[in-house]
Every structure is written in C-alpha cells, then in structure tokens.
Amino acid sequence: MRNVLPVTLEADSPRTVWIAASGDIHAGIDDEARLRTMLERLDERTELVLLAGDLTQLGQVEEARVLAAACRNVAVPIVAVLGNHDWQSDRATEIAAVLADCGVVVLERSHTIVPLARTTVGIAGVKGFIGGFDKEWANFGEPLFREAYRETTRDVEALDTSLAGIGGCGVRVALLHYSPSAETLEGESERLWLVLGSERLAAPIVKHRPHLALHGHAHHGSLTGDLDGVPVHNVAMHVTGRDFWLFEVDIDNPREPRVV
Which of 110, 117, 132, 149 has the CA that lies 20 to 30 A from 140? Predict the structure, then answer.
C-alpha cells in the first residue's frame, strides 16, 4: 500500500478524515480512459478510497489489469472487496493478485488498518452473500441450498472476526458487496432481495458498531439505511449517480459521518 505513513501536522489541522467510496465500477477491457478520468477526478481532500465490489464486468483478469493500470498512479490508499461479477470467470484469486500488484488492498474475509495523519482507519472486508431479509433462507434441504447457507455463515463469522480486529481504530468501516440492510434495497423488486444480501450480515455490524457500513450490488436500491444506529450506504455508482461518494468523518465524533 502506498502513502500510508503518518505525517506531522500543525496543531490546528482539521480533525477529519475524507473517504471516497464507490461500487460496481464494472471495468471492461476498453475502459481504461473512463477509469483514469474517474480516478483523476477524486476530490483533492480524499485520503482513502474504498471500492465495494464488482470491480470488473465478467471477472476477467484482463479487465482487472485495466483497472489496475488506472489505480497505479493514485496517491492515496485504495482498499477493495470483490463482488459477484469478479467471480464470474472463476479467476477471483488472479484478479486480487493483479490489483495487489498495483497497490490495491483486496480484502476477503479479512481486515486492514490504514494509518493516516490524524488517526487510523480500520476496514473489515467481506464480499458477503445471499440469504434475504425477513424470510431468511433456511439451512435445510438439498446440499446446494445448505452449502449456500454455509457460505453466508462463513462471511458472517469472518466479518465478526475482522470487525473485532479493528476495534482499536479511530475510524472503523465495514466494507461489503452484498447488502446487510433491507433499507438500502428499497427500489429493487422484493423478489430479488434474496440474492442482493442477507440480514445475517447485520449481526456483526450491530455487535461491533463500526462507524460506517458500505456496500454495492443493488443497482436500483437506496442510498442510505441504518442498523441500530450504524449508518449504511449503498455506494453503487448506479445509485449515487457519481463516480465517488465522499464521506467526511469527524475524528472526535465518528458516529455521524457526513456525506459531501
């Protein structure tokens, strides 16, 4: 990771952290110009970039290389999770390696801690998986159904462990692709909610209470939700209408991040 060492600031420096977040970039092999322009337009205040999955269109390594080339010259840390599109061609491990080679930290059931000038930002990252809301997918029936349930369980357990691992950070973020909140799925057909997220992903977030939870995946969902006081934001580009959604987090009061 680049440019993550703390630096000495003047005593009156603003006590805020600026985080740019986006999801569902869907990089294609002909998208280098679009991606470079997108990243060049990052707000000059940005100190950290978070990408909430679906980094590629079809999960091809060549698509990941296009995104990696655009990320290579970004001067601030970039942390990402993969999405379902990134798994489409069964080359997720290679995609993560290509991105890591240009300095992007790809989290998969893991966490990272980024030391910035005024604080540390901890990010717990999982792709997440399916399950739905209210009428949760039961751990019953054919082996494929039970395996899907176990896959979500593995993400829930990893998110719990990862959030515990960043417990001492000044700013704590849960970064997912699939949604942990039904509120940010409003606008999507309810028949699709089963495959857009899982309410089981909410439990670790409510337990550990990060300052911010981010996801993508739901292209027709809603911008904001809430999990027992933890703000949840759907940062899919299709929802925000922007390349990046910029969050200003007050170090002294990180519980109320402000969207700019």
Answer: 110
